[in-house]
Amino acid sequence: MKEEKISNSKHDEYVPPKVWKWEQESGGTFANINRPIAGATHDKKLPIGNHPLQLYSLATPNGQKVTILLEELLAAGHSDAEYDAYLINIGEGEQFGSDFVDANPNSKIPALVDHSTAEPTRVFESGAILLYLAEKHQAFMPTDASKRPEMLSWLMWQMGSAPYLGGGFGHFYAYAPYKMEYPINRFAMEVKRQLDVLDRHLADNQFMCGDDYTIADMAIWPWYGSVVLNRAYSAAEFLDATSYKNLLRWTNEIDARPAVKRGRMVNRGFGPLEEQLRERHDASDFELRTQDKLEAAEKEG
Ligand SMILES: N[C@@H](CCC(=O)N[C@@H](CS)C(=O)NCC(=O)O)C(=O)O
């Protein structure tokens, strides 16, 4: 029965050619920015603010990881973690501008440039940025050396697992031009397995590394917490995400942290205007320069 249903779909008639060619857009959300070629498409300077740390990003889960860590560092008193954050509009192809490609040859947010070093240091890949900042400030990593492998393991778990959640499940469930049972089933199964991995671990651990709140939590929460809180792909019900009770407990606990709330606002160009801080240069920006206030001031002239 099932086989018949699948083979009846017109989309199953596709026979791959001998050599794949980029001939047409897929039609899915973000199809306009997907290209099979790396490198810059145009010359574009990136702005540089006053702080040593310059972040070029967007408030997607990968972007939030870094702004959450920076806000947590500042909240913990690491004043040298002050940063300028600029919004990179990936929908408009700004990740293909020449300066951005110099900062990240992979053309994806987030990218960090540290100007406090003799020559500016570029760091790309969100996991590498988290490690770089945690090591630089000696914070949000376990102090006990024997726990460090656990932190690294969960950090790498996130970097390896989330593409199944985002690029796999999220793409086919929310962004593909039409619903396809096979990939949605395949990736829903894998994502539910991942949710269960987290749930079982969090049954005996307050955070991913026991009692220590670390960059592993900051990497995992923006992705898996978003699913549980139904902030990603509108899929919480489909995945029965709130049934993972330990994961739900951890998700809510991290969601309530003031630094996490601030980190989620930085470089946000979507959602309620009062939650959008498109550029961040100073702690006072959260009070004074959210998008609702900027637009109200503009109207007043
Ligand atoms: N592995 C990378 C993934 C980064 C990534 O996929 N960024 C997305 C937004 S979440 C992006 O910039 N997409 C733009 C594009 O694909 O052109 C990381 O963790 O930093």
Short note summarizing the structure:
This protein is mainly alpha-helical. Helix content is 46%, strand content 6%. The radius of gyration is 21 Å and the shape is globular.
What does this structure look like?
This protein is mainly alpha-helical and about 300 residues long. Among the domains are: about 55-135, Glutaredoxin; about 145-260, Glutathione S-transferase Yfyf (Class Pi), Chain A, domain 2, CATH 1.20.1050. The protein has helices at about 1-5, 60-75, 100-105, 125-135, 150-175, 180-205, 215-230, 245-255, 260-265, 285-290, 290-300, and strands at about 55, 85, 110-115, 120-125. A four-stranded mixed beta sheet has the order 2-1-3-4. The longest helix is centred in the middle third of the chain and has 28 residues, at about 150-175. The site of glutathione has 11 residues, from loops. Glutathione binds near residues 60, 62, 125 and 126.
Mean pLDDT, to the nearest integer, reads 94
H-E order? HEHEHEEHHHHHHHH
Relative strand content: 5-15%
User: Quick one: how many beta strands?
Assistant: 4
Strand line-up of the largest beta sheet = 2-1-3-4
Class from helix and strand fractions: mainly alpha
Oligomeric state of shown chains: single chain
Topology of this structure?
Elements: H1 2-7, E1 53-57, H2 61-75, E2 83-87, H3 98-103, E3 111-114, E4 121-124, H4 126-137, H5 148-175, H6 181-203, H7 215-228, H8 245-255, H9 258-265, H10 285-288, H11 291-300
Parallel strand pairs: 1-2
Antiparallel strand pairs: 1-3, 3-4
Helix pairs in contact: 2-4, 2-7, 2-9, 5-6, 5-7, 6-8, 7-8
